[in-house]
Task: structure prediction
Amino acid sequence: MNDKKIIYEFNPVIYPYKIWIVVDKKPDIISDMFNDYNGNPIENINKDTENLEGFAMMVSKKDIPYYGDVIYFRSKKSINFELVAHESSHAAKHLFEHIGADVSAHEPFEFLIGWIAHCCEEVKKNKV
Result:
């Protein structure tokens, strides 16, 4: 039995949006647990992402009506400064899009990017 955790959930509290970080060799679990943002099944995720070490995507949870972003890393080794910064920026933009906020209101947006990057670091260091 493999009891290694591969999905980590974070709640930014002040925003109605979750962040899920997935660390696994293949992203199949994403299509098992989530639909796309519009509620449609996620198809071909392995084929569409086979050359990526990480990505961020807007999703809706299948079993509970939550919206959020999945940030995927192929391994903990993939959780590096460059990729975390890149994917955290995508996830923050997605959240602001979801709530209808303008990213030009700089400080809330930059704070959110830092918080998401911190969540990634917590996963990398096994602190969650």
